[in-house]
Amino acid sequence: MKLAFIGIGKVGFALANNLQQKGHEIIIAHNDIQSESVVKAREKNPAFSALPIQEAITASDIVFLATPFKVAETVVQSLDFEGKTLIDCTNPVGLGISHGLESKISGAEKVQEWSTTARVVKAYTIYGFENLENASFPNYTIKPVMLIAGNDNVAKARVAKLNTDLGFETLDTGELSQALHLEHMTLLWVKMVRVNGHHPHFTWAYLER
Ligand SMILES: NC(=O)c1ccc[n+]([C@@H]2O[C@H](COP(=O)([O-])OP(=O)(O)OC[C@H]3O[C@@H](n4cnc5c(N)ncnc54)[C@H](OP(=O)(O)O)[C@@H]3O)[C@@H](O)[C@H]2O)c1
Q: What pTM was computed for the model?
């Protein structure tokens, strides 16, 4: 599939590079071809192409939003997503690793509000980028789980397919408002790893009986 990335920093590059190695075509959706992350990403993986953001959206099947949350509104508000799946990888993080929107509403719902022509799915936020660049755990028979949320089942099925390609099992947590709880899971993971010293390659798993 053709995948456009708005934001190709730690998270964007980790996902794009992993998915390119799994056979997907990556288009960096940029507003400055000379920006540090765009130049670096193309040096590290010359198979990536690059187009201005709107052109990249039109040329792609699925779009990833992997910018800082604070710039997301400005970046997406004038774009036409043409009904495509927009994967919200952003996290609104506030002072002291708190929820940046005071836990009143998820960042993903705000992204959906700002990009009315997109079908937003929250994914790839509950771990650090380390688990996005490589999600294989060869010593285990069980796969790491990726929790997702969104209002559109077709869009979620497309994200589930990407999860499979990356090596994740998908757990659909329900409608987009569930993203608020996923964003709290992010804060939990970040606090555990970045502050309390847990290993950055630890993930959650889904067991059921
Ligand atoms: N780091 C993690 O482990 C992690 C894990 C899960 C989710 N997240 C979330 O994922 C998002 C990205 O995090 P990151 O760590 O990848 O950040 P990062 O390394 O700083 O990368 C941010 C990317 O966004 C681009 N960007 C910044 N402002 C922009 C604008 N106004 N217009 C277009 N592009 C812009 C940057 O491009 P330039 O080179 O031009 O600045 C860069 O490509 C954040 O919302 C973060 O909370 C992070």
A: 0.98
